[in-house]
Amino acid sequence: YLSNGLSRMTLRKLRRGEWPPQDSLDLHGLNSDAARKLLVEFLHNARQNGFRCVNVIHGKGWRSEGREGILKTLTRHWLSQHTQVLAFCEAPQNAGGGGAVLVLLKIL
């Protein structure tokens, strides 16, 4: 995901690790309401602390019976709607792979 008006190079840099994650959030085992509330609080706190990049772990959804995980889908939807999110992409294998996303935030 890349916000409107940003260069594709921004997403490429995020994928290549130009901005290492400064904090992470694990949403495993939460229901959708609790996950959304925690995600919004986490993003707010990350910006208040001046963090540029964070890792959000949502899990792969192995118990979704052949479908993509519910939290995986919802997390990506919520991030794309959040005004302070510039870009996000799948995390590298050592940071969660398909079960996590790296999120690039606007600078205060």
Note down, in words, how this protein is organized.
The protein has 108 residues and is of the alpha+beta class. Helix content is 34%, strand content 19%. It contains three helices and four strands, in the order αβαβαββ. The protein has a four-stranded mixed β-sheet with strand order 1-2-4-3, sandwiched between helices. β1, α2 and β2 form a beta-alpha-beta unit. α2 packs across α3. The chain is globular and about 35 Å long. The two termini are 21 Å apart. The relative contact order is 0.24. The model has no long low-confidence stretch (mean pLDDT 92).
Concise overview:
It contains three helices and four strands; from the N terminus they run αβαβαββ. It is an alpha+beta fold and 108 residues long.
Looking at this protein, list some descriptive labels.
108 residues; alpha+beta; 34% helix; 4 strands; four-stranded mixed β-sheet
Report how far the terminal alpha carbons are from each other: 21 Å
Q: What radius of gyration results from the CA coordinates?
A: 13 Å
Q: Classify the beta-strand content into a percent band.
A: 15-25%
Integer average pLDDT: 92
Order of helices and strands: HEHEHEE
Return residue spans where pLDDT drops below 50 for at least 5 consecutive residues.
none
Structural class: alpha+beta
Largest sheet: 4 strands, mixed
> How many beta-strand runs?
4
Query: Level of helix content?
Result: 25-40%
- How are the strands ordered across the major sheet? 1-2-4-3
Shape: globular
Q: Treating each run of at least 4 consecutive H or I residues as one helix, how many helices?
A: 3
